Amino acid sequence: MKGFSKCARLMSVSSAQAQDVISSADKLVEAGRARPYQSIPGPKPLPFLGNTWRFLPLIGDYEIEHIDKVSEKLYKEYGKIVKLEGLMGRPDMLFVFDPDNIEQVFRQEDILPHRPSMPSLNYYKHVLRKDFFGEYGGVIAVHGEKWQSFRSKVNQIMLQPRVAKMYVSSISSTAQEFVDRIDKLRNSDEEVPDDFLNEIHKWSLESIAKVALDVRLGCLDDNSHPDTQKLIDAVNTFFINVPVLELKIPFWKIFPTPTFAKYIEALDTIREICMKYINKSLKRNTEDVLENNEISILQRILRLENDPKIATILALDMFLVGIDTTSNAVASILYQLAVHPKKQEKLRKEVFRVLPNISSAVTHEKLEEMVYLKACIKETMRMYPVVIGNGRQTSCDTVIAGYHIPKGVQVIFQHYVISNLEQYFPRSKEFLPERWLKSCPFSKEQHPFASLPFGFGKRMCLGRRFADLEMQTALAKIIRTYKVEYHHEKLDYFVHPMYTPNGPLKLKFIKHGS
């Protein structure tokens, strides 16, 4: 119990309300009125196999590809707080489905918040390839003072709105390449091929390369470099295998399993390909670009910190987590607009008003005018967030929902389930971008912690501002150029590796006039 009191004093609190939460939780523990951890409902573990068996093929009833359905099942069977214990080689998982409880955890967040770890990536960065990463592990799978030191060095570049605004022109140029690429991909029926999602990956990769390194990879050219597809495939392999290594029996910790070998090969491929272009960017004469607002993120970090290693590791992290997340989000938004033509038409009118000509330049000021575009993005991310959950690992004893939670438990915030509940979003099963407009009565009722696609707090998504700009710009240009339709069987969603439509994205792109 004393551990909780000590921890509470170290917490970084952003409001008086949060301080009251900490104080009341502290009193609950000290008075012995918090319910015991073992009384939290959840699926019962088996001897030896615990709950890990549930993720095994043939005998298990939890599919990793449909972790969204698993989460819904847990909520329906056990309620707003669910314990999944007995997971071999990893801490217990505590699923929280109440935004009030999520807010409590975030508001009383430690100065050095601990996200649920990725031991496989931690092993890669800090053991297997320690000679490369050294003391800088970046911001992914890194915790404590090393994370704080690195994050503090890059925050002022990555999270300042004024910095992101400087890249609109570059992002717009790449988006136009993508629009032109769509024109070439269309068949005689104006449909794109089955592998259209891979083309969106190429756009995302090209955008990141331009922003992070100020290099053009040529991903959207007719004859793109083989590195393009190798890098995209490696990132996909990385993400697909993360949940396998994390949720199934971790044999990889004992011997190098085939899955772990593929995972390491993918990470090495990402690192080796990215380093070709990172080194090229590092060799540029910084003095030649000092007056250019759109110098790369890498060069901007170099000017600020004068440390090539920090710039290199940040660029690597941007490639590792920025390709699939942004591209799958755009794929999902296009699909939702295609199957909701009235919403797309409303968006088209807004885009045509702000960009009256096909050649109208996209600027930050014009993007700010497109409020319905932002609403369409937010609504898709509410219903189908590309990352369906977030979380923290308790660094000391605490109280959540009246239960005593010991140190080391991984608390999972299941935003996909929460943001699709009628309790928090009226008419939650409907695609209603209007709910995000200030004029909508719903907007005043929404809980601010019921939909957090980019996370919250000190460990929120570092690339959020750039991802927003990339999505807004690409979608504005696509809708300005095409009407998007879908005339095939309705697509379900699954985790592969992001939460994305399951099946060929055979969209029809019909060109508008000028």
Account of the 3D structure:
The protein has 514 residues and is an alpha+beta fold. It has a domain at 131-385 and 462-511: Cytochrome p450. It has 20 helices and 10 strands. A 4-stranded mixed β-sheet has the order 1-2-6-3. The protein has a two-stranded antiparallel sheet with strand order 4-5. The chain has a two-stranded antiparallel ribbon with strand order 7-10. α10 (196-213) packs antiparallel against α14, α12 crosses α14 and α14 crosses α17 (371-383).
- β-strand percent reads 5-15%
> Within the CATH hierarchy, at the fold level, what is the topology of the domain at 131-385 and 462-511?
Cytochrome p450
How do the strands of the widest beta sheet line up side by side?
A: 1-2-6-3
Q: How does the helix and strand content classify structurally?
A: alpha+beta
Oligomer: single chain
**Order of helix and strand elements from N to C terminus:** HHHEEHHHHHHHHHHHHHHEEEEHHHEEEE
Based on the structure given, which CATH architecture of the domain at 131-385 and 462-511 is correct?
A: Orthogonal Bundle
How many helices? The count is 20
Largest sheet: 4 strands, mixed
